Give the backbone structure.
Amino acid sequence: MGKNHRGLLISFEGPEGSGKSTQAEIVYKWLLKKGYETILTWEPGGTELGKLVRDILLNRGLFIAPKAEMLLYGADRAQHVEEVIYPALKNGKIVLCDRFIDSSLAYQAYARGLDINFVEQINILASGGLIPDLTLLFDLPIEEGFKRKKRGDFDRIERESLEFHKAVREGYLAVARNNPHRVKLIDASRPLESVAEAAISAVDEFLKGWDGDAEAD
Ligand code: Z5A
């Protein structure tokens, strides 16, 4: 699958309460207003099958072994890429994805402790080698993210320890360090409007290069 398409994949990543879903919605509306054909989707649960898988993954009454957890996120991703993401990219659309492969690296490898090569292999198998063109990583201290959450009934992953969530954040920062050209780090501890300004400006900047490439084709 790789790069055999005309569209653009932008992922939104970050630890709990980082505001990435809010920002994905803001960027989505901004892109539509600019006239770009854009879809906004998410993992886990961006397809009918994915919704069922999501219910299993977030069910706090279930024990799920770490490898099974990774394979379930992989199943959700495989279905999502085949049914939603790849067709949209093939049609030249911009796809905004709320969580993608880097969530598995941060949560399943860095925090859960699975072998990073195993997680990377499942990511490649599930996504067909699809890597986001741009990733916006919304970073903030874990305690601040949890303060923002208004729901008290935490799901299976939210209920993990503070250490687990701190490892998620560290994992994300490692992903950013390892992929400096793809991952744009955004300070998400600022007020919503400032974060939105940074997110839009990162996408705007990226699009200048992309529009240029499209014209050259
Ligand atoms: N997961 C995984 O382990 N492996 C994988 O491969 C994938 C996922 C794909 C999915 O949960 C879970 O699956 C997730 C990771 C794991 N962990 N958990 N739980 P989800 O999709 O239900 O939830 P989420 O993605 O973790 O979303 P979230 O953390 O609940 O929210 P968010 O997207 O980061 O934030 P938000 O919904 O935009 O905002 C949260 C609140 O903060 C809301 O009230 C906003 O109005 C407020 N907000 C937003 N921005 C600000 C600012 N700047 N200031 C103040 N308040 C703000």
Residues 14, 16-22, 43-44, 73, 99, 103-104, 107-108, 148, 150, 155, 157-158, 191-192, 195 surround Z5A (CB under 6 Å). The first helix runs from residue 20 to 33.
